[in-house]
Each structure stands twice: as structure tokens, then as C-alpha cells.
Amino acid sequence: MFATFLVGLREGLEAALVVSILVAYLVKSDQRRYLPHVWIGAAAAVLISIGAGAALNYGSAYLSLAGQERFEAITSLLAVAFVTWMIFWMRVAARKIGGDLRDRLTGAIAIGPIAVTAIAFLAVIREGLETALILYAMIDFAENPAASLGAAGGGIAAAAAIGVGLYHGAVRVNLTRFFTWTGALLILVAAGMLKYAVHDFQEAGDLPGLNTIAFDISATLTPGTWYAELLTGMFNLTAAPTMLECAAWAAYVVPVLVLFLLPRRQSRPQSASRSEPAPAEIQ
């Protein structure tokens, strides 16, 4: 549940920040008449994302057992790719996302209301489709899918509340630190999804080594205990993983985590007139 809550919070906050930037720009530039178009675009993106999640869930039910294993493995791999891309993209683009969105919105206003709606839709749909795919891959191996889905909804609701608070100045969040810590945790979550994908391919017969166990900690990782549920749900830690699962987990988590935590190279200081706002600012 904590893992899906984290995904909902992280993706929801990114979407909330995007919408807040668009709304704040329209308000400050005295273009309030376009606010309904922003909300229409954002709402359409949310509805389509929910529909995409439902299609993934119900569409896989018509596959054979081996087909379901392969489908779940492929969606897990896609989710890993999206998580990895998301955390590195936000790490690089956080300081210029506000300026980019305002430039696009200025051009959209010159075209008309439909263009403004499209800007809001495209800005939110990316986060929504990512969330749908990642949550499908995570909830698929959850012991209590309903609770995991509810936790994700709670994360999205919390993100919306934080976004409103940031917009009104009632909440101060160091977004750089927030995205760094959540990014590191999501790398571990993604490693668990990759491990799950390998196991699914092994069960489908596409990869060898299903019975080659790396270690067995069943006596320590007792099913039903709070710590077992936490480790299983958060990192997909299983009591008796295969050698190939462990190799895939290590091959992903070590280089990706190291690259993510490496200090970023500082760019040349720009003049005050051209500098971008910090990620925690909404202008």
C-alpha cells in the first residue's frame, strides 16, 4: 500500500504542479476566461487515464494463463521504463518546466480556447497514463488490490491538497528534496517490478531458472507479518527468489541508483532576468 501511495503522491504532485502553473499564469496575466478550458483539458486527461487503467485490467482477463503471465511481465517492464524515465526527466527539467509551460500557454492563448484546452490535456495525460500503467503493474502482484488502489487514490488526493496549498502559499515544500527522496524510493520499487517481470517470464516458460533458487528466508520473512507485507508490497521482496530475479534486480538498481544520486553538474549562473524559478515556486 505504501508503494502505490508513493506513486500516487509523486505522479499526482507532478500533475498538480503543472495545473497550478497554468492556472497561476492565467490569473496573473488577466486571462481568467481561459481557466475553464484548463480544467476541461485536465479533467478529460484524468478520465482517459482511468479508462486506460480499466482497459489494462479487464483486457488481460481474456488472455490464456501463459498469455496473462507474458502480458503482466511486459506491462511491468514498461512500468519500469516509465518510472526510470520519469525520475530522471524531473531531475533535469524541474527548474525549467514552469517557463516551458508558460511559453506554450502564451502561444496557445494566441491560437484560441481549443489550444489552451489541448495544452492542459497534454500536460496532464502524460502523468495520468504513466500512473495507470505503473499502478496496474504494481497492483497486479499486490495481495490486496483494492487496498493498494485505495492507497494510490489517497496519494493522489494528498498531492492535490499539496498542490492547492502551494498555489495559495499555505504550504512550503522543498520540491527538490521531495523529488530526490521519492525518486530513490521509486528506483527500488521499479527494481522490484523488474524482478516480478522476470519471474512472470519464467512462469510463462520464456526464461529459464524457475527452480534455481538464490536463497530461502522463509523462516525469517514470515507471510502475514507487518514487515513481510511491507517489504513484499514495497520492494517485491520474496522469501525464495530465483537467481535470475536477483541478478536482474541488482543489474538495475545498482547503476540506476548510483547515476540518480550523483551530484548534478551546475550550469553557468544566468542573469537575474533570465533565471528560472526554483522547483518549489509557482509563478
Automatic annotation (TrEMBL):
InterPro entries: FTR1/Fip1/EfeU
Membrane topology designation: Multi-pass membrane protein
Keyword Membrane: yes
Pfam families in the cross-refs: FTR1 (PF03239)
Cellular compartment(s): Membrane
Record-annotated membrane-spanning stretches: 6-27, 39-61, 73-93, 105-125, 145-166, 178-198, 239-262
Chief location: membrane
GO cellular component: high-affinity iron permease complex
Annotated keywords: Membrane, Transmembrane, Transmembrane helix
Keyword tRNA processing attached: no
An annotated Gene Ontology molecular function: ferrous iron transmembrane transporter activity
Family statement: Belongs to the oxidase-dependent Fe transporter (OFeT) (TC 9.A.10.1) family.
Name used for this protein in its record: Iron transporter
